[in-house]
Amino acid sequence: MISAADRARAADLMQGFVAAGATPVETDILQPAGTLLDLYGEDIRGRAFVTHDPIAGETMLRPDFTVPVVQRHMAEGADPARYCYTGEVFRRQEVDEGRPREYLQVGFEVFDGSDPAAADAEVFDLIARALAPWEAVPATGDLGILIAAIAGLTTSARRRAALKRHLWRPARFRRLMERYTGAIPPTHTRGLLLEQLTHTAPETLIQAAGTAVGLRGAGEIAARTQALAEDAGTPPIARTEAEVIAMILAMDGPMDAALSPLRDMAVDLPGLSPAVDRLEARAEALARRGHDPARLSFAPARGRSAMEYYDGFTFTFAAPLRPDLPPLATGGRYDALTAVLGDGRSIPAVGGVIRPGLLEGLA
Amino acid sequence: MIRLGVPSKGRLMEKTFDWFGARGLTLSRTGSDREYAGAVEGAEVALVLLSAGEIPRELAAGRIHLGVTGSDLVREKLTRWEDKVEAVAPMGFGHADLILAVPKVWIDVDTLDDLDAAAAQFRATHGHRMRIATKYHRLVREFLQQNGVADYQLVDSQGATEGTVLNHTAEMIADITSTGETLRANHLKVLADGLIHDSQATLFRSRTAAMDSAQQATLNDLRARLGRGG
Fold this sequence. Notes:
The complex is a heterodimer of chains A (363) and B (230).
Chain A: H1 4-19, E1 23-24, E2 30-32, H2 33-40, E3 50-53, E4 57-61, H3 66-76, E5 81-90, E6 102-111, H4 116-130, E7 137-142, H5 143-151, H6 157-165, H7 170-180, H8 188-197, H9 202-208, H10 218-232, H11 239-250, E8 253-254, H12 255-268, H13 273-288, E9 297-298, E10 313-318, E11 329-333, H14 335-341, E12 349-354
Parallel strand pairs in A: 1-5, 7-9
Antiparallel strand pairs in A: 2-4, 3-4, 5-6, 6-12, 7-10, 8-9, 10-11, 11-12
Chain B: E1 2-7, H1 10-21, E2 26-30, E3 37-41, E4 45-50, H2 55-61, E5 66-70, H3 71-77, H4 81-84, E6 85-90, E7 96-103, H5 112-126, E8 130-134, H6 137-146, E9 152-156, E10 172-177, H7 181-185, E11 188-199, E12 201-206, H8 213-227
Parallel strand pairs in B: 1-4, 1-5, 8-9, 8-10
Antiparallel strand pairs in B: 2-3, 5-12, 6-12, 7-10, 7-11
């Protein structure tokens, strides 16, 4: 349950964000389900409460603020902008029933493309200072490194797109890498199909397979068999490049110590360099605000299996000595989300939220 | 008295009665055919006749001590089912596989890998996510999430699920099948790695039902007898 003390703490945190120059915004608790389903897919149904409105159709109890705040900014906001908000979010708990179904979030979002590294550091620093009384332990990541590495792979555009699409789903990402490096050979059935395609038109094979049912037409099936045949002819991803991906996924250490090995990796995968430059600029911006990169934990893939929209800097703040608690605060950069929700427009954006309800009872 | 929940009609009820009978416990319906009342001979057990679909909920609520239902229904209807019930004995009947099936003409789709790629292509082509008709929302969603399949949506189908593809209300289905005949008749095929759960009738014990020492003794005695097999 949300206590009166939680609300008072949320109000204090809000005041701090307003003092830092943010405009307070409100969003509806009942959100149209369509946007959230388009973004997150069916998985969101396992995490959000879905209800039905006779006029608006399927709606969800606000599972987070970022999406409605971004929508609002893209529709009517002027750049640059800084927003803050506080209120309830609602999460279904199917796996861990002990976790709360409704709790408060207090958030801060920056829409400002002029100096992304400085904006990253600004959000991180603001939340670090807000949580200073609780001695929260920060940890950082950067999904931009992984995205740049994927974009730099010497392979087909189709394979790069598939890997990028599954960046946030570690199990499927691993399977794709295994297939694209040749570690998993094609199945017997697939081998048979590929053999048949060398001498028979896909349309003939589709017709021979039986009665056509459903919306997915013969043209689509034929197009994908074509793609399968092309993919079978694509050479495996080189070992050196696959190793770079594996090293990025495994990397975990101080932020400043990550720069040199990443520069080495950029020799094998030149596409990495701009992302490493951004990491370096961010490390400097954080240092200018008093956060020593030598003491900041950094794992590029951190935040990968959290919300699907982070695509650059990510961070969490944990309660010291309480590994049982979820993070006290989380945040990150979500430039691509603004493009998805922006109807052709986009703007670099970064933000974070604190959960005041977790602070109760901490030192 | 221990309360035992048993499916109230059909083959599942008959097979359940046979299974207990082979273990020295005679279950029977009493009164008229339409009256849902039953009796047990040979133990301090009260028979509660229920729809198989309600038995998971009754077990979780602790209103019955033991219950017979499909393992698929327990997994679908209860969150963290292992905390709420214990599977005492698989009963060897009521076998059914919850599977993912796609049209046979999808010659490019044999596995979950293919399904995921086809779903991405479908969404790009049709502007909406590939629809999977099912009544097993939780099981299907968890399975696809674990396997990292994206760009699908579940549409509810409480019956004649195999027909939804023909009727263009879904692109594929996730449903229970025992022989696969209905699938074939509806021009569908099962994905090679599309087995979500192989279900069978199972005797479950409620972990939440309160018991006094007499009930506990009855339960221990029952477990010993039922474990012997028939």
